[in-house]
Design goal:
alpha+beta; 2 domains; six-stranded mixed sheet; six-stranded antiparallel sheet; 4 helices; 14 strands
Length: 248
Amino acid sequence: MKTKTFITAALLATAMHASAATTSIISVNFQGGLNGAAPTGTAVTSTAGYVPADNWNNATGTTGAVSNLISSTGTATSTDVTWTTNNLWDLANGDGNGGDQDMMSGYLDNFDVNGPHAITISGLQPNKGYDIYVYFNRADPTYTGLSATDGISNNTYYGFDNGSSYATNGYLLSSDDNIADGWTTANVFLFEDYTGSTLTITDPANPSAPGTWKVYVQGIQIVMTVPEPSSTALLGLGLSTLLLRRRR
C-alpha cells in the first residue's frame, strides 16, 4: 500500500511539473515623432511595460509593417504587425534611458481621424491564450477607447487619460466597458483571454464623452501563456510508470 501511495504521489508531482507554463511576451513601441522638427521619436532599448520586458520592437511611421517580431527573450517569432494612423506625435518627455518613459512619449496620433485605421497583429500562436496591454498617454485630459477582436472575443474598453505623464501616474489599467457608472482613469487598456491567431485593434465611435475625445496608441504588449513540459518531468513520469508496472 505504501509503495502504491508513493508511486501515485510521484505520478501526480511529475504531471503537475509537466503542466507548468512559461510566459512569452511580444512588445511593440510606436515611436511617434514631432513631424518635421523630430520626425522619429525615441526607441525603447531596455526593459519597459506594465509586464516588464526586454527586446521591444520599435515601429516608425504613420503606416508600416514589422515582420517576425522579436519576443522578450530575443527570439524571432512568426508574428507580424501592420498599422495605419492619421499622424504621429511625441510628448517629448522621455528620459533617454530607453525604458518606460521613452515608450510612453511618442505615439500613433488621431487614430480616429480620416480612417478607418487599424493595428493588426497576425501569426499569433496563442497556445493557452493571451492578454493584450495597449498603452496611451497625452499631455491634456482626454476621453478615449479602443476595440480589440480576434474573431472570437470582441471587446471595447474606455478610459479617461488625466493628462499626467507616466513619471507622475505610473501605469493605470482599465478594462472598463461600462461608462454609464463613470470613466476609469487609465493609461493602459487590458484585454484578457484572447485565443485567435489574428488580432485587430480599432477605434470605437465616440460614446458622447463629456470632454475631448481622441484615440492614440503608444505601444502594445502581447503576453502569452506557453505550456512547457520539461525533459526532467517527462523522464520522471516514465520512470514512475515503469516502477508501477514492476510492482504489480
